[in-house]
Amino acid sequence: MNKSDLIAKVASASNLTKIDAERAIDATFRSITQSLKKGEEVRLIGFGTFIVTNRPATDGRNPRTGAAIRIPATRLPKFRAGKQLKEAVAK
Fold this sequence. Notes:
alpha+beta; 3 helices; three-stranded antiparallel β-sheet
């Protein structure tokens, strides 16, 4: 499923126009992104939790040349599925 498919399904399930469904989905994604940027977790009971993790800097190698490189520390978004989502997928 891609974003267009999601918009169509949300529009159909909620009796919204596709434009209104797209606005709602975009607003949801924006809100989640803004919260994660602030370092907040987003917990959707039954669905899952979006969190930000810190990955420390590490040493690596350039696969072409074998030269040592420093991979900088970074913040990454992660998703942990909730119990209801896990059970729904497992069936």
